[in-house]
Amino acid sequence: MLKLNVALLSLALLAAAAPGPPRVVRCSNGKTTANAVCCKFFDVLDDIQENLFDGAECGEEVHESLRLTFHDAIGFSPKLSRQGKFGGGGADGSLMAHSDVETLFNANNGIDDIVEVQRPFAIKHGISFGDFIQFAGAVGVSNCAGAPRLEFLAGRSNNSRPSPDLLVPEPFDSVDKIIARMGDAGFSPNEIVDLLASHTIAAADHVDESIPGTPFDSTPSAFDSNFFVETLLVGTLTPGNPIDPAGGQALSPIAGEIRIQSDASLARDARTACEWQSFITDHARMQSKFRAAMSKMAILGQDRSRLIDCSDIIPVPMTPLAKSATLPAGKTMNDIQAACKATPFPTLSADPGPATTVPPVPPS
Ligand code: HEM
Ligand SMILES: *[C@@H]1O[C@H](CO)[C@@H](O)[C@H](O)[C@H]1NC(C)=O
């Protein structure tokens, strides 16, 4: 009977996944995946959903875990390598293995929290730090409403050297500087925007330390386009301390929401504004472009052909978005600073009710 089921399942997969040789392996826990190497990730999945993400939430740990995927991976500079220097190993887990060095970098302010929370999970399950960071990011994103199912490839070495400093972009960097740095790592201006869809499930603890957990958009647990709409509203206020001691803060349009200078500038720069605007009314495009850019980012410094595709371990995101793009309550189309010359800004209606204010993301 079991044999028959396996045969039927293989047949079904063969039909669904043609061409290409379909593979299916039954793990000791009875679950199936594409490769025996992936089996151990089922246990990691159950453990982190329960004990890292507080029962598959899209909360602070998910946001921090996603930020960590970037800060580990972007430590990768072919430009430094061409100068005969060590350019960093990319998505190699160096931020966790050499946290004594890398968490001291200015751009990594606050990243030590999630590094220390994740480390015991990685060690307990015997997963390399590089694999663990990207796995936790992909699983975490799947908990957010409207998220795409990200790719996950396993097999990164656990050996790394500390990344050089100054490779992680800062919120006070100019668009020229960000495009140059991200270009060095292999990303086009549009792909920077694609990656910044991450800021729709994000908050800041250290841009203004007096108001930790202040979100970048009004819906930090939904992978929706509100971030791309709200960054284009006229800025009118600072949500906390108006002095901006850390640097890199821009005026925000909504009480309780924070805007960083780099997001404000990228939203309005001719090189990035059209990609930015395109996501407002095309959620499927936002999902697929984010997924593609994340696939590229997650294997910086790695050789794709030497990694094993364990994407089928990543949960299929189940929660759909509640609604399509709107303006926050209290705003009108006159508050939009449209910046894409090629395409008119879409006409959006505003949410009903008193002006939107955004509560902080609760710490957990
Ligand atoms: C132009 C490049 C980028 C800049 C300048 C930037 C800057 C920032 C800053 C200043 C924060 C707030 C950190 C804090 O104060 O706690 C932040 C948060 C965050 N960033 Fe970025 N970021 C960039 C790109 C990215 C990318 C490519 C990703 C992921 C793919 C990402 C994911 C996140 C997430 C998820 C958070 C929220 C963390 C939390 O809520 O704890 N960022 N980013
Ligand atoms: C990875 O290296 C760290 C030390 O940096 C070690 O604690 C951990 O057990 C190693 N993990 C694996 C899977 O080898």
From TrEMBL:
Co-factor: note: Binds 2 calcium ions per subunit.
Taxonomy of the source species: Eukaryota, Fungi, Dikarya, Basidiomycota, Agaricomycotina
Primary gene name: vpl2_0
Cross-referenced PANTHER family: CATALASE-PEROXIDASE, THYLAKOID LUMENAL 29 KDA PROTEIN, CHLOROPLASTIC-RELATED
Cofactor(s), by name: Ca(2+); heme b
Localization annotation: Secreted
Family to which this protein belongs: Belongs to the peroxidase family. Ligninase subfamily.
UniProt keyword list: Calcium, Disulfide bond, Glycoprotein, Heme, Hydrogen peroxide, Iron, Metal-binding, Oxidoreductase, Peroxidase, Secreted, Signal
Origin superkingdom: Eukaryota
GO BP field: cellular response to oxidative stress; hydrogen peroxide catabolic process; response to reactive oxygen species
Residues that hold Ca(2+) 1 according to the record: D72, G90, D92, S94
Catalytic residues (UniProt): H71 (proton acceptor)
Residues that coordinate or bind Ca(2+) 2: T200, D217, T219, D224
Broadest EC class assigned to this enzyme: oxidoreductase
Species: Hypsizygus marmoreus
The protein's Enzyme Commission number: 1.11.1.-
PROSITE patterns, A to Z: PEROXIDASE_1, PEROXIDASE_2, PEROXIDASE_4
Residues that coordinate or bind heme b: H199
GO molecular function: heme binding; metal ion binding; peroxidase activity
GO cellular component: extracellular region
SS bonds (residue pairs): C27-C39, C38-C310, C58-C144, C274-C340
UniProt name for this protein: Peroxidase
Site (Transition state stabilizer): R67
